[in-house]
Amino acid sequence: MHGVLNFSPGSEFDEAKRFWQGCPTILRTPKGRLYAGWYSGGSREPSLRNYNVLVRSDDNGRHWSEPLLVIPSLRKELICCIDIQLFLDPSGKMWIFWTRRDFHYPFDDEHHLSTFASVCDDPDAEKLSLSEPRFITPGFLRCQPTVLSDGRWLLCAYDFREGNYHYSESADNGATWTRRKAAKRCCPRNFDEPMILERRDGTLWFLARTAVGVGFLAESFSQDGGATWSDARLTGIADPSARFFLRRLHSGNVLLVKNDSRRQSPANRERTRMTAFLSDDDGRTWKHSLVIDRGDSSYPDAVQDADGTIYLVHDRGRFSFGEIVISRFCEDDIIAGTIVDRNSFLNQIISKIPARPYDTAELERQRAEDKAELDPFFKK
User: Fold this and answer.
1) What is the pLDDT of residue 3?
2) What backbone phi and psi angles, to 5 degrees, belong to 306?
3) I need a labelling partner for 14 at 20 to 30 A (CA). Which of 39, 180, 244, 366 fits?
C-alpha cells in the first residue's frame, strides 16, 4: 500500500486549518521554476493526520501557488506520511521522496520506517504528472541524495536499528537501491539526518546530527568509495541537535547551513541563528558566514541555480507562528557577511498558519485523538 497522491486537495488541507508546519524542501527546475514542499497536519509530529504539501513559484520565489499536491497519511492503516524531500536528478527529472512510519511494526523493525518516491519527467510542464509511487528503501530520508563523480547516487535514509549509520546506494539512476552500512556511531542513536560530501580527492565525508546535549555534529570518512568507513567521531562543528544542509557549489566551494546558536553559549540548545557558512578547503575551515535568521528556525534545505544563486528554505516557529520561508542569496553575500547583491533577500514567507489562541477546542480535540491513536505504540 503506497499511499495516495492527491492532486485536488480539499479544504481540510487549507493553510487556515493547520496548527503547525515545518521541515521544508526546495527544488529548482532546468527552466527556473521553484517547487517547495513541507509537512503538517494533526496536532503534532507524528500524527495519523500528517500530510505532505507541494507548491510552486514561477517568479523566483516572490509568489507561490496553492497546494498542487498533498500526500496524506493512511489513517485507517496506521501509516503516517511525513517528511517530503525534493531532488532534481542529473537528467532533469524531479523526484518527490517521502517517509512513511508504519505502526504495525515496532521502531526497531526495518519495516517501521520506509522511503517512497514518485518521479516527474518534466517538472517545467504546466500540469504536474507523476509516476506511481514506489518503495525505494528502508529508512527515514531527510536530505537530498548525493551524486558522486562516478555516477552513483547516495541516499542517506537513516534508521535507529543498530550501532552503525546506514544509507542506500543506486548505480542505475535510481532504478534499484542497495542498503549500505556506514560508520560505527560515536554517540547514542538519534535522528541522524546525515549528508555526504565527495571531497576533491575522492574522500567521502559523512556528516550527521547528534543527540541533544552532545553539542557537535559527528563525522566519518571513506577512502574507498563507501566500501569501508572510519568510526564516527565528533567534529568541531557546533550544533544544538538539529538538521543541517551540506552541498558543493558550482564554484567548488562548500556550503553548510545550520543553527549556530551554540556559538553563543555551549549550554544553548535552542534552534536559533540559522547561518550559511562557506568553505574553500572542503569543509576543513569555514572562513565566511551569513546569518540568515536570528530567531526560532530549523530544517534548512537549498538548491543553486546555474547562475550561482542559492535558494534556501527553512521553517520558523514550527509550533507557534508556523512560517515556511525562502531566502535568496549568493556567495558574495556570504563572503561579505551581509546582503550585497541587489537581487538577494532573506526570509520571505511562503506559507504561514493563522494566529489563534494556542489551546483551541479543535486543537484539544485533535490532541486527544492523536494521543489515543499513537501513544500506545510509543509506550511499547
Assistant:
1) 57
2) -60, -30
3) 244
Question: How big is the CA angle at 275 (ends 269 and 95), to the nearest 5 degrees?
Answer: 100
312 within 8 A of 301, measured Cβ to Cβ: yes
Q: Which of 161, 177, 42 is nearest to 97 (CA)?
A: 177
Amino acid 267: pLDDT: 53
| β 113-120/204-208 pair status | unpaired
Q: Is 70 helix (H, G, I), strand (E, B) or coil?
A: strand
Q: Residue 178 above 90 pLDDT?
A: yes
* Burial class (CB within 10 angstroms; exposed 0-12, middle 13-18, buried 19+) of 184: middle
Q: Are 157 and 168 in contact (CB under 8 A)?
A: yes
CB 80 within 8 A of CB 101: yes
User: In whole angstroms, what is the distance from residue 23 CA to residue 316 CA?
Assistant: 10
Q: Where are the domains positioned within the chain?
A: 1-139
CATH label, 1-139, candidates 2.60.40.10, 2.30.250.10, 3.20.20.80, 2.120.10.10? 2.120.10.10
Cα–Cα distances (Å) from 28 to 59, 142, 186, 274, in that order, read: 12, 18, 36, 21
SS3 370: helix
CA count, 13 A, side-chain hemisphere, 82:
25
Alpha-carbon Rg for the chain in angstroms: 20
Please say if the pLDDT value at position 265 is more than 80. Answer: no
- Alpha-carbon distance of 308 to 338, in angstroms, equals 17
3-state SS, one letter per residue, for 300-325: EEEEECCCCCEEEEEEECCCCCCEEE
The grid coordinates of residue 235 equal 567534529
Kindly tell me the burial class for residue 376, based on how many C-beta atoms sit within 10 Å of its own C-beta (0-12, 13-18, 19 or more). exposed
Report yes or no: 97 and 115 within 8 Å, Cβ to Cβ. Answer: yes
DSSP-derived secondary structure letter, 256: E
Q: How many C-beta atoms surround the C-beta of residue 2 within 10 A?
A: 17
User: In the beta sheet, which residues pair with residue 52?
Assistant: 39, 71
Whether 272 contacts 261, CB under 8 Å: yes
